Amino acid sequence: MSTTDSSATTGAGATTGAGATVTVGSGGSSAPAAGGTPDDSNSAPSDSGTNTGTSTATTSTSGSGTSTLPVSLTLPALNLPPPTGPKVLVLYDAPAGSEYQKLGFSYAIMLRNLLGHFDAAVDVLPVQEYQAGQVDAHAATFYLGSDYNAALPATFLHDAAATAKTLVWFKYNLWELANDASLGFGASHGIAFDRLRGMNAVPSAANPQPGFFDQVVYKKLSFVKYYNYDAAANRLNADPDIGVVTIADPAKAKELVPIYDTATGEEAPYIVRAGTFWYVADVPFSFIGPRDRYLVIADLLHDMLGINHAESHRAMVRLEDVDAKVSVQTMKKLTDLMEGKGIPFSMALIPHYKDPLGYANGGVPQDIPLAQATDLKTAANYATAHGGQVVMHGYTHQYGAQQNPWTGVSGDDYEFWDIVNNKPVAEDSQLWAYGRLQAGLAELAAANLRPIAWETPHYQASANTSKVVPLAFDTTYQRVVYYTADQPDFSPHAGKDFTAGQLFPYVIQRDWYNQRVLPENLGNIEYDIRKVDPMSFYNYTWQDIALNAQYAWVVRDGFASFFFHPFWAEKDMDTPGYEDFKSLLDAIGAQGYTWVAPGSLK
After folding, report:
1. What is the DSSP string of 531-582?
2. I want to staple 555 with a disulfide (CB 3.0 to 4.6 A). Which of 76, 95, 283, 299 is the partner?
3. pTM value?
């Protein structure tokens, strides 16, 4: 069995987000360099994610990824109400002809998603396409400076210097605004750009960790910036550069958040505010994690937008990969534990169990629809009668009669993404994905089980799948992987595509694919049992997750949300799963979080 339920989006020390891998000593900055336009399919002028129209087609019951699905389906239109939040502009660098042409776009998607917490009406476009007056036409503008020395349009620089509207500037190219005396920005805002800082020295096998500004201190906690150096390949996985500004006039500008170089002890401003202008020293969407400076921005977006949500700290817990092979005894034990503590919960239920290669059944294939899954129905009915809610976790949570990538067994493999070849599956289309969603819903309905949300298997699906989820579910409960094109091409070339895996600290009312997303932001308990399961090879303790919850508290309306695989509580696993789960529930409750049911969130 596979014990993780994500791609690169959870697990011990794992990071999400978009980021470039750099060959050390190759010349140039660790950030991409030089301009262009993203894929048109995702560059809608407002709120992204095109609505799907109505069409009728016949689904096939053949093919490696399909099961018995409805003979014909009609893809309904997606009719969402207009956003109720502020009108926001997100500008990003798109260096034409560069391998990193779309990296800034991936950051823009991630920022746009966080703005979905405020139900903002978001316009996303390359800064090179900026038109005069657009800054003042929006309540707030965010510029993501990810391309070193990008040539910014004079109209944008003029409007940025003169506007009284909120403008948030990230990382590079502030010097074009702050150091041009003709624009008058420095005099009016009291800020001067000083210099860039990156690694203290070039990493090497002899000196693999020379240090950089890697610790952001906010609300008395130190948030990290990810760093990994592969000496054998001479490859650096990090985003060490920051822009250092000087506060020339303390009456006009002030440092809100500092950043420290832990190797040298130096301090620099991380976030500076001068009236309606904000400067953030890096782009906090690269290599993110549950204790990353990403949470600082997630919280400060309230102040940047002038929308101060009330202080609220809620917690959620989900039982994961509940399928036809579930132990009724274990599910009852976990249900009774949470009911006894007054903790509402959910269970990620896989409607149709498949083991086409017989991996878990002595070489004999198995196919168990929900109608025949007696133990699953017994466990689910008991849970729903005692405080549990159902989340539909894929249809089969695996793909056809093949290993994708592990065993082909439900709960182990990806369903809506070819992870072996890192591309959409062969049948990928909105209609194909919608058919699987409807098939799963039909099996649940026949068992009188009504899901309150959807969760994508391993948190990764194609853009087509993510776009049709809102046609079947008004809510999802997950992390999400996003792409810079609907049919991404990740091969090395100018304008290659990027993925962006994102966790959320709060509810997102509308994301890039028009999904409403409930957060899972802490991860899950894991044990190293590689002797019996080579896919389960690391430890992630309940103490790790409890520490993540402490960091999540800095977000004023944030959540502490995690999941747990019931099989860890089974005696034959020879792990302290049940006791660790109990300890984690107690620890999160002791921190002051209020447990809530996902179906109760508005």
Report:
1. TT-TT----B-HHHHHHHHHHHTTSTT-EEEEEE-GGGGSGGG-S-HHHHHH
2. 299
3. 0.91
